[in-house]
Amino acid sequence: MTIWTRWIQRGVLCGLLLGGLVAFTTIASASDPMPSITDHAGMATWYEKEAATNREKAKDMAAMKAEYAKSPAFVQSMAGAGGKTDIPRHCENLISSYTKAAEGADQLAKVHRAMK
């Protein structure tokens, strides 16, 4: 692999990471403000939206993990000589975190629905 190929691959990776960061920032800043704690219907709806958002993020991470699995040589080349190639495991950890957050939000929505 030539040095130019590595530079191109790393440039593409940086572009993807920056694009993801911008997308995350846009999504994070556009989230709905939390309603009053006494508005149980509003809180339930808010938690349901949070659960749906976290499930979507878990789905996106699963797709990213699948893409990395299709190209293990690319993952290896990103790590460089002696680097770590645990990017798929990182994706799996994020999938797990987003799934747990969605489950927690579902439980809180259920609690607030019961308080109406």
Give a description of the structure.
This protein is mainly α and 116 residues long. The chain has helices at residues 3-29, 40-70, 72-79, 87-115. The model has no long low-confidence stretch (mean pLDDT 81).
Quick gist of this model?
With 116 residues, this protein is mainly α.
**How many helical elements?**
4
* Structure classification: mainly alpha
- Helical fraction equals over 70%
β-strand percent reads under 5%
Q: What's the quaternary structure here?
A: single chain
Radius of gyration of CA atoms, rounded to a whole number: 19 Å
How is the biggest beta sheet arranged?
none
Total count of strands:
0
Would you identify the regions where 5 or more consecutive residues have pLDDT less than 50? none
Order of helices and strands: HHHH
Straight-line distance between termini: 63 Å
Mean pLDDT: 81
- How would the global form be characterised? elongated
Descriptive keywords:
116 residues, mainly alpha, elongated
Describe the protein's topology.
Blueprint (H helix, E strand, L loop, with lengths): L2 H27 L10 H31 L1 H8 L7 H29 L1
